[in-house]
Amino acid sequence: MAARGCGGVWRQAWQRGAGGPGPGPGPSPRGQRAVACNAKGGAVPAGKRGLAPWIPVVGLEIHAQISSNSKLFSGSQVQFAAPPNSLVSFFDASLPGTLPVLNRRCVEAAVMTGLALNCSINKKSLFDRKHYFYADLPAGYQITQQRVPIAVNGSLSYSLCIDNKMSQMVTKTVRIKQIQLEQDSGKSLHDDARSQTLVDLNRAGVGLMEVVMEPDMCCGEEAAAAVRELQLILQTLGSSQAVMAEGQLRVDANVSVHHPGEPYGVRTEVKNINSIRFLAKAVDYEIQRQIEELENGGTILNETRAFDSKLGCTVPMRDKEGKQDYRFMPEPNLPPLILYDAKSLPANMNHQQVINIDWIQERLPDLPSVKREKLVEQYGILPEHSFTLLNEDGLAEFFESVVKQTQMKPKKVIGWILNDLLSYLKEHSLTVKESPVSSFLLADLLNLLEKKEISSTAAKQVLAELWKGEGKTPLEIVKEQKLGLLQDQKELEQICQAVIDGQENEVIMMVPG
Amino acid sequence: QKVSVEVLDHLEHLALVDFRDSEGVERLQKAIQFADQLHEVNTDGVEPMDSVLEDRWCLYLREDDVTEGNCTKDLLENAREKVEEYFVAPPGTDFLTKV
Questions:
Q1: Which residue spans within A11-101 are E strands per DSSP?
Q2: Which of A144, A176, A306, A317 has its CB 3.0 to 4.6 Å from that of A182, i.e. a possible disulfide?
């Protein structure tokens, strides 16, 4: 099921409905979208048998692990792979007599992220306890910010290609409801064979930023694009490394459908989404499932479902009996978190104890959107090129490095980067850092081309040879394979004459004609 | 005012507490009655207090240094059951069912 923008999915669901018994509208003409996007941007697909169209609504709850040395409320280390229960302090294990002590770096990370997402930073935010029982939550509650989070009311802009054409990009915005600081839980390994759960608390207490996105999205593609942009922003800020595969970025999707003009439908929560690609699939599947369920006269339960990546579908999660009652209460061991700005900076306080929002704002690095604009302006490349450059870790830097080392115009260099280099990397599943062809080598090659010492075709051959990583320079390869363009007129004449001489008969036959 | 059976079940489930006999339930009802006296205070227009420190800024910020951890042996010492440095717990949320 390809998520080709909002159009692709709904055509499928629609056609499936039309395939059933009874009269139905015929399949849409080839190439024409069965879906029109309404003014709000949401897909409004035609239901089967002339039923009213559906508007899908998608919201996201994203947990980003904060990139810090130690945990949110304790001094144990934050590290991905380590021997079980080796990165656990007495507080993390919830032993009696221990107290939380807030990590300054985690607060700064949350403020940076809030500012980058255009949020209002709450100068006074509070911590609360969210209670539930689970083996990997030794305290029986999670410290979070339910009443007054650290940042609220922001926005995130992201771009989508229309109809899969990179040349037609549209910008969308999703509102950020809030960002809150909270603790991560430990990890449970279920051993069904021996009917037990093994618990590793290394992750318990690691700082998380929960980013809540309002339900402004309408399909898997939008959700995926929004999360991708958030990922790039977090990585640029350094507040989180946001690698989904290592659990540093976790996304839960809230999905519902309703008819235009009617109130929002019952929503389901979809969990266990492990990549951006699966996020798009999971969201689109769930939307389709809900539409089919409702069109068949069924109802949607307000439940939590897990995405099964192998089957490509969502299934109800076990262990979720009824609505949870978290019994929120203020965290009695933590006073309010107070942040300052230039105006409210206290006079006689230890600098280490003061967090200045304005100071952080001034030091924010260029966000991806700004970087893209600068690339387009500085090098005259197309906007869609800037997207691809930033989408691949290290590619923009590689490009700029080549441009510095060659006389070839950036507009020509970009073609070599995006068409040739990038496709090689993708073919061999390599990152830019792992490229056997360095920016120096590529620049060297492009210089030969620019000076017209080789043809474009020959350059591609040389690149293929360079890719083998045998340590030869472009010039060496050119000489070896005799790919050099002949510049000497006399030499050219000699060769042509030799050819003609060697084919005397053919020439004689050709001349009269 | 009596505590309904539904509320009782709900509380037992949430708090993992077994009220067991009528004496336990009686005690619970008396505790609720006692706490209800708080309703006699008029709190209109009064901000809830969540810290006696009030506005005196006092939340200590720690530097991001690794100062703890690496005490697996100590932590596992009191565990009733362990498997290769993992704590062992009943599967899923089995501990919610009554003994």
A1: 35-37, 43-45, 55-65
A2: A144
Asked if A8 and A31 count as a contact pair (C-beta separation under 8 A), the reply is no
| Residues belonging to chain B with any Cβ–Cβ distance to chain A shorter than 8 Å | 10, 14, 16, 50-51, 53, 57-72, 75-76, 81, 83-93, 95-96
Q: Which of A68, A87, A199 sits opposite B64 (nearest CB)?
A: A68
**How far away is chain A from the Cα of B21, in angstroms, using its nearest Cα?**
24
SS3 percent helix, strand, coil of chain B, rounded to 5, is 40, 10, 50
Q: Do the chains contact at B86 and A196, CB–CB below 8 Å?
A: no
How far is it, in rounded angstroms, from Cα A129 to Cα A139?
A: 10
In three-state secondary structure terms, A475 is: helix
Query: Which residues in A lie closer than 8 A to residue B91 (C-beta atoms)?
Result: 190-192, 195-197
Instruction: In whole angstroms, give the CA distance from residue A422 to residue A35.
Output: 34
Q: Taking each helix axis from N to C terminus, what angle separates A276-295 and A220-237, rounded to the nearest 10 degrees?
A: 150
pLDDT higher than threshold 80 for residue A350: yes
- Three-state DSSP at A239 gives coil
Task: Find the length of chain B.
Answer: 99
In terms of Cβ atoms closer than 10 Å to its own Cβ (0-12, 13-18, 19+), residue A478 is buried
Q: What values do phi and psi take at A325, rounded to 5?
A: -115, 105
A191 and B90 in contact (C-beta within 8 Å)? no
Distance (Å) from the alpha carbon of A144 to chain B's nearest alpha carbon: 15
pLDDT of residue A77: 98
Give CA–CA dist A287/A268, Å, rounded: 10
pLDDT at A346: 86
The residue written with tokens 């120096």 in the block is A440
Q: Return the closest-CA partner of residue A160 out of A417, A387, A414, A423.
A: A387
Looking at residues A252-265, what average pLDDT do you find?
A: 95
Following DSSP, what letter does each residue of A150-186 receive, concatenated?
SEEEEEEEEEEEETTEEEEEEEEEEEEEEEEEEEPP-
Site of tokens 């809230």: A254
Q: Cβ-count burial of A24 within 10 angstroms (0-12 exposed, 13-18 middle, 19+ buried)?
A: middle
When comparing pLDDT for A500 and A274, which is higher? A274
Q: Residue B85 and residue A133: Cβ atoms within 8 Å?
A: no
Q: A181: which strand partners?
A: A209
pTM value is: 0.84
CA–CA distance, A10 with A8 (Å, rounded to integer): 6
Q: Quote the tokens at residue A18.
A: 């039309």
**For A136-150, how does the pLDDT look when each residue is reduced to its tens digit (9 = 90+)?**
999 999 999 999 999
In single-letter form, the type of residue at position A155 comes to S
| Rounded Cα gap, residues A61 and A71, in angstroms | 21
